[in-house]
Amino acid sequence: MENVEVFDALNKGRGLRATKVFKAGDVIFTEPSFAAVVFDSLSQQVCHTCFRHQDKLHRCSQCRFAHYCDRTCQRAGWDEHKQECAAIKKCSKVPNETIRLAARALWRIEKDGSIVSEGQLTTLDQLEDHVADMSADGLKELKGNVHNFLDYWPHSSQQHEVDRVSHIFGVIKCNAFTLSDQRGLQAVGVGLFPNLSLVNHNCLPNCTVILNHGSQTALNPLFHTQSRIELRAQERISQGEELTVSYVDLLNVSTDRQQLLKQQYFFDCTCECCSQHLKDDLMMAIKEVNGKKPSDLEVKEVTQLSLKALEKIEKARVEGNYHEVVNLCKECLEKQELVLADTHLYKLRVLSTASEVLSYLHYFSEAADYARRMVEGYMKLYPPNNAQLGMALMRAGVTHWHAGQIEVGHSMICKAYGILMITHGPTHSITKDLEAIRTQTEVELRLFQQNKDAYYNMRETALKKVPMSAMAEVIQDSIKKLFRSK
Ligand SMILES: [Zn+2]
Ligand SMILES: [Zn+2]
Ligand SMILES: [Zn+2]
């Protein structure tokens, strides 16, 4: 591959570095999955070839498990599904997503070999599995998966030693990448991408990775493009510089991020952000009113109370008690108000949930207030070209638009567009949606500036019709952690 090379990143093992200069928004490489599967819970709602979320899918008549957009996707996915189809037909219960992924990976190796393209820089066998580092619980899960895998794996396929199968499960645990749907709003599946696995972690990375679903709409299949991940530069990168992505959300204090990384990926993060505890002070900041700070006891009380409230809020959210969520958020924010600063993580988490749920319930004005406070905090914490920041700005902008606050809404949407052009690129479906939204808010803003009465009349008529589908979808669901396994 011409843009990158493998190098020895010392205590981090192998790594990838740039062989030329990149500017923000450049695609460094693209990679189709070596193997990928849809999550168990979404197997009937998401296409097993292109990972788009669709209302109506076409079911495989053989196994009755795989689902596709149409014949085109079914045909395109048949090579990967053929052996799986026969194996699923034979079992009483479809195996879980991890087992299906391991099987697809081994069938791929059997069919195409360990290296399937010229640009592939490593094999699954060469990747680390960290089986030796796993906890007792981790090992128990792994053994269960291996056992069920052996039941599922047909006699007609090439047979493998238990160690080889365990290795593949270990590789999946620390290298699998979570796939999102076409709007980037929901995690829908998981896949293996060998080259991406070589990119090491940094809490403040210079690259971002996204799934591009490709295009299967052209009449001539020659013009179809496969779904693939894109590694994109999110800032200027010099020749020889190591390429990094973040495996976890930055919005955790350094010790928490280090713990998460250790548990899931078995390494100690020594990035600059962690070793110098950058931004920890902002994420745990205390409010100062007229030069006066709350007492240590007050801070301790509010911190503990916030943690408990966040648990309750999450429980109510999962159970779908949205009005309860709103009440709990308001109660918690009131207690936090005079004690925690606006960049404090616990406050941001409450603001984020409150705005999301209030938008869902169509209380747009209130939702917009919370969303604005949330993105103001995010802008102080995230680096400028961060995908999460872009997505949050997009949701906040759309919420303001719904609330009739066109000036703020349009400005947020423009900011989000600037970020997503770099993190997702102009051809990604989210960027295209956002482009349509931006055109709409631009027209409305002009009308608003010319004649406010006419603007409000037009809005009222417009809102009686169904709002633009893209605007409605943006606020329906959101997910923050799209990187790697759940
Ligand atoms: Zn499809
Ligand atoms: Zn089938
Ligand atoms: Zn770090």
TrEMBL record:
Single Gene Ontology BP annotation: methylation
Entry's EC annotation: 2.1.1.354
Chemical reaction(s) catalysed: L-lysyl(4)-[histone H3] + 3 S-adenosyl-L-methionine = N(6),N(6),N(6)-trimethyl-L-lysyl(4)-[histone H3] + 3 S-adenosyl-L-homocysteine + 3 H(+)
Keywords for the protein's UniProt record, in alphabetical order: Metal-binding, Methyltransferase, S-adenosyl-L-methionine, Transferase, Zinc, Zinc-finger
Keyword Zinc-finger: yes
Domain (MYND-type): residue spans on this chain: 47-85
Residue ranges of every copy of the SET domain listed in the record: 2-248
Gene3D superfamilies with a match to the protein in the record: 1.10.220.160, 1.25.40.970, 6.10.140.2220, SET domain (2.170.270.10), Tetratricopeptide repeat domain (1.25.40.10)
GO MF term (any one): histone H3K4 trimethyltransferase activity
Source domain of life: Eukaryota
A GO CC annotation given for this chain: nucleus
Stored Pfam families: SET, zf-MYND
Protein name: [histone H3]-lysine(4) N-trimethyltransferase
